[in-house]
Every structure is written in structure tokens, then in C-alpha cells.
Amino acid sequence: MSETTGITPTQYIHHHLSYWTVGHGFWSLNVDTLLFSVGLGLLLFLAMFFTARRATSGVPGRWQNFVELILNWIHDNVKQIFQFDNPVIPPLAITIFVWIWAMNFMDMLPVDLLPRLAQFIGVHAFSADPEQVYLKVVPTNDMNMTFGLSLGVFLLTLYYSISKKGLLGYGKEFIGHPFEAHHPVARVALVVPNVLMNIVETVSKPLSLSLRLFGNMFAGEILFILIAMLPAWGQWPLSFVWTGFHLLVITIQAFVFMMLSVVYLSMAHTTHDSHAH
Amino acid sequence: MDIVTSIANVQGLTALGVCLIFGMGAFGTAIGFGILGGKFLEGCARQPELGGMLMGRMFLVAGLLDAVAMIGIGFALFFVFANPFVGAVTSAAATAAGAK
Q1: Residue A239 annotated to the active site
Q2: Cα of B99 to nearest chain A Cα, Å
Q3: Contacts by A263-266 with C-beta closer than 8 Å and gap 24+?
Q4: Residue B66: active-site member
Q5: Of A148, A170, A150, A151, residue with least CA distance to A160
Q6: Handedness of CA B32, B68, A149, B78 (dihedral sign)
Q7: Does the B11-81 domain belong in CATH 3.40.47.10?
Q8: A255 and B59: CB-CB below 8 Å?
Q9: In this predicted complex, what is the ipTM?
Q10: CA separation for the pair A214, A146 (Å, rounded)
Q11: Is A57 a catalytic residue?
Q12: CB neighbour list of residue A18: distance below 8 Å, 6 or more residues apart
């Protein structure tokens, strides 16, 4: 695999961990992340769109059955947590789960498959230096992608917090929770610990949401790369085991992202006279 | 001390740090998963009809348990493959060599 180019294992790893970046500094875009995420999103969108178009209320075909299975499962899960009336949340949950799962699934492709294809195209169509053609196939491997997703959810929680509770209500909750008191002096004294706790909580939610997904996918990809450097007799059993486990990890991480987003949104909708639990 | 010794020192300590991150993450996660699985089995034994729902909740909590360990692994792998401390040492050495 590396006999013709004679690169060292470290170079191989570094090559596979580098992005196809365009631009520099703050404005550098990871084009491969953007391409794969948007491309997968479009593909899934079109697939579901055409399924919905051709949906029959009679006996469903296999594809419609499959899509309905997924949608029903997500709907049941969301309904258990989100007790308010907001039509945005179920489609949001479906988008998050299906999109993240599909992006994570790109990790299942052989490590060298698409990068080698990109190198081939780069060398023959654009006469690029093969060592300079970088392609990272898994968008959720990129901190930019996971932070984009979690910041989107974070902005939604802020928006719904303020629109459901009002700016004043949100502020009151910020300084009045989790340590509550009735006596005005005690309330003033508890403002500082409350604000600190709330800042930590508010900042840690998008941070943990995104880094959880990133860490899982990054570690998974590094392991795939390391397995790819083993000789053939080592690759087959190890990659079988790790691929199987990684399928489970992919699904769990997409599920956890979706559930936590719905939980945070439901917390954003909770005003104190409408405790729905 | 010369640059090679400095880099070797930094890399050795980084390796130890990475091992601690991996090990302690694994330690906490293993104990957490053990308790989680045990409680799940207990719950299933008490009320087998709730098995499906309990399993769904179990995987949710499993994803949360993994979280900090995986964040740690992400950072540890970053230290292994793109060590910023070695970068700092080499740039400091380059500055010192350039100043001489």
C-alpha cells in the first residue's frame, strides 16, 4: 500500500488526518467536510422527499416501510420527552438523527477508498501533487461540523427560552435558579452563585454536545487508520471487530445527540407555571 | 540542555499524560457501565415487559457515560499526533538559534 510512495506510518496518519482546506487563517474552509455534509444532507432530503411523494395509505412498499419505521421510532422517543406543542421539534429531531447517523456512517468506508479516488482524480484531472491531495470523508470528524450542529441547537434553545419566557423571565430564571429563596436579602445574596452555575450550565451544554460526538468519531477514525497500517492477517479480524463496535457507537452517538437536543429544547420551553412533568 | 533532550523530555511526559488520560477515562467508564448494566438487568428481572424501554434509556445513559472519556481520548490523540508542546520547544529553539 505504501511501497510505491515509501511514506512512513506517521506521514500516513498525518495525511489521513489533514483536511482539504481552502483559504487560510480564520477564513479557511474545510471543503471536504462541507461537501460531504451538504451532499449527504441533500441525498437524504431527496430520498425522504420522494418517499413522501409516493407514499400510499394502502400496503406500503419496503422503502416506505423503512422510512416510516425510523420516523415512528424517533417520534415516539421525542414524544416521551417533549411535552409541549411545537411543530418544529419532531422534524428537527429527525433531521439531527438521520443526518448525523449518515455522516457518521461515512466512517465505515475503507480508510483509503475515497482519498485514493480523490488522489487519482487530482493527479490526472488537475495534475496535482498526490501527496498534497487531502480528503477527510467523515464530516463529523471535524470539530467545525460538530460545533456547527451544537451551536445551531444552542441558538434554538436561546431563541425558544426568550420567546417562551420573555427576556425578563429568562433573566429571572438566570439569577433565581438553582438556589431559590423567598427573602429578598437571601435572593440578592444568591445571585452570584446562581449566575455562575447558570453560566457554566449554559456554556457546557453546546460544548459537551459537540465534543462528545467529535471525540467518538475522531477516536474511531484514528483506530481505523491504525488498523489500516497493520499487515493483512491482522487487518481482517481487528477491522471486523472494530467496525461492528463502531456501528453501535455511531447509532448511540446520533441517538444521544438527538435526545439531548430535545431535552435542552424542552428545558427551554419549561416555564414555571407549566411544569409538564 | 540541547534541543534533542528537550524534545525527548517533552515527548516522554506527553506519552505519560496520554496514558493517564486513556487509563482514567477507561477506569471511570468501565465502572459506570458496570453499574448501569447491573441496574438494567435488575430492572429487567423485576419487570420484563419494560425491557425495551429500559434498553433505550440504557443506551442513552451509555452515550452520556462515554462522553467525557471520548473527549479525553480526542485530546489525547491530538497530543500524540500533533503535539503542541513539541512545537513550542522547537519554535523556542529556533528563536534562540536565530538570536545567536
Answers
A1: no
A2: 27
A3: A263/A81, A264/A153, A264/A154, A264/A157, A264/A205, A265/A82, A265/A86, A265/A89, A265/A92, A265/A153, A265/A156, A265/A157, A265/A160, A266/A81, A266/A82, A266/A83, A266/A84
A4: yes
A5: A170
A6: negative
A7: no
A8: yes
A9: 0.77
A10: 6
A11: no
A12: A134, A136
Mutating which of A251, A252, A257, A258 best tests the B interface, going by the most B Cβ atoms within 10 A? A252
pLDDT averaged over 10-residue windows placed end to end, chain A, 277 residues = 61 83 85 92 92 83 88 89 88 94 91 86 80 85 92 94 88 82 84 88 90 91 88 86 92 92 90 51
* Partner residue facing A14 (CB), from B60, B62, B81: B81
B81 to A13: CB separation less than 8 angstroms, yes or no: yes
A116/chain B closest Cα distance in angstroms: 22
Nearest chain B residue to A255 by CA: give it.
B60
Domain layout of chain B by residue ranges = 11-81
Structural contact between residues A138 and A221, judged by C-beta atoms closer than 8 angstroms: yes
| Active-site residue, selected from the candidate residues B66, B85, B86, B93 | B66
Grid coordinates standing for A78?
Answer: 421525542
